[in-house]
């Protein structure tokens, strides 16, 4: 009896591991495929169909072209600016706001909590939001990517939970020593909540790195475009053109252009994704922690 | 907690509300100073846009402003209901979100349960790390990959041709749009969404399993009688949240994936709002359309929550 059960359990374990392995391959292979394509010889790549396990030939020309391309380069530096400046504003605002709403003896505490809760369930929608940004004169300025997304309520609540866990007695004694609230926040609470702060800074930074929609509707000048918007032009628009006309590929120049276009496409994907994929394994556990913190209901 | 109570008791000295408020302000002036940017943010980017919804009932022109524009009542709503777009976008939104819920909601739960059954810790960690990864890839890249893989000479067609399927450009086929949209969505978020269930699973008291094993319960019975009931509250909360989102399909991914050839199945309310409002500058009309969507969403979450409160005493508020 005991032996029999362990056999069926063992079969289940094996099947389970095989199934999960397939899932892992499905999750990871698309990116691996793109990486292999980006290192391949463009002409071979054009003729090739199907699965790739190693690059076809080997060349870094695609990456050279990507880094020489002025719009990709400006896009990259613009994104860097949006990530750094945006995350800084996010963190400053979120930290101060979280401190405010963690002070429960404030008379306006309830009012502030209501003010924060309503937008979680109801918003003006895309158009009134757009018009408001326009009215503030932010259209086609870099601030349009920073101020309208300066605070995420979700992150605010995560941080508030962390601030609440700082012992009240610590704050009380600091107050008795004459510390004001800024000192308490920056000298006591923030150093004690470093882990959570790191988590939400990462959430914000990844959000800025990946965001493209606000840039698309708010920015006009290409010189201000973040990388994702340039990427959209390369990835999405390129393909729609191909979709619409099935021109016969005759001239050699045309083939060369097409081949390199494909290569550049894959290289740009890697350039825009690699920073996240590289830091991701190290910070993964903090992200997971962030989700857990967010899910603890008070 | 106690100090708060004492504080309350002390301040109740029959002072007027405003006097108390003034005292509170002067006592906590730095806190209120810190609250200022937050209040400004919420007013500027949350509450003024909410107020801006009234342009749905006006003929808004940027020259006249919100106040100056003429009231037109329900004209824009009426026009939307009359147009062919109402039926189409409504149906597409409902179907995409319904199927997303149907397929996408159980996926992370099943994944979490399977990961939970793995006894080899290293493998478990690896599976988790890799399945979370797609969550962090930008939508632009994801959609770029989808377009690339589903193209006529793409990877998907190569694999399918082994099974005798003739290659087509899948994204130009309206009948396949939902499948592509939903399966890629599951691919991207399944791992990340499973975190919350895995957390719930680790919180289950191991002695329950020990007791069950002594009673001779096999793993399936343990799953049905211990694991599932233990994570049921988490499942219900997630379900309520998901039902609230039933009538809202985000525009970002739709805009990246759709094209005029697939509008019959891919055009949802929010992408229609984007096209009419941002691209077409029909501000009042598109605000009205957006308002319908968020009103439905709010109603859904309200009733889902109410229903859940009644049957299981689990609720969001």
UniProtKB/TrEMBL annotation, chain A:
Q: Where is the signal peptide?
A: none
Does the record's keyword annotation contain Transmembrane?
Answer: yes
GO CC field: plasma membrane
What are the residue boundaries of the ABC transmembrane type-1 domain, all occurrences included?
Answer: 76-275
Compartments reported by the entry: Cell membrane
Mind listing the UniProt keywords for this protein, alphabetically?
Cell membrane, Membrane, Transmembrane, Transmembrane helix, Transport
Name the Gene Ontology biological process terms.
transmembrane transport
Q: How does it sit in the membrane?
A: Multi-pass membrane protein
Query: Which positions, given as ranges, span the membrane?
Result: 12-35, 79-99, 111-131, 143-163, 184-206, 263-283
Keyword Cell division set for record: no
PANTHER family assigned: ABC TRANSPORTER PERMEASE PROTEIN MG189-RELATED-RELATED, POLYGALACTURONAN_RHAMNOGALACTURONAN TRANSPORT SYSTEM PERMEASE PROTEIN YTCP
UniProt name for this protein: Carbohydrate ABC transporter membrane protein 2, CUT1 family
* UniProt organism field: Caloramator quimbayensis
UniProtKB/TrEMBL annotation, chain B:
Q: Which PROSITE patterns match?
A: ABC_TM1
Q: Does the keyword Ion transport apply?
A: no
Q: Read off the InterPro entries from this record.
A: MetI-like, MetI-like_sf, UgpAE/MalFG_permease
One Pfam family name is: BPD_transp_1
Name the GO cellular-component terms.
plasma membrane
Q: Which residues form the ABC transmembrane type-1 domain?
A: 90-304
Give the way it sits in the membrane. Answer: Multi-pass membrane protein
Membrane-spanning parts:
30-57, 96-115, 136-160, 223-251, 283-304
Key words of the record: Cell membrane, Membrane, Transmembrane, Transmembrane helix, Transport
Q: What is this protein called?
A: Putative aldouronate transport system permease protein
- The yes or no answer to whether the keyword Repeat is present is no
Q: Where in the cell is the protein located?
A: Cell membrane
Q: Which GO terms describe its biological process?
A: transmembrane transport
The similarity annotation says: Belongs to the binding-protein-dependent transport system permease family.
| Primary location group | membrane
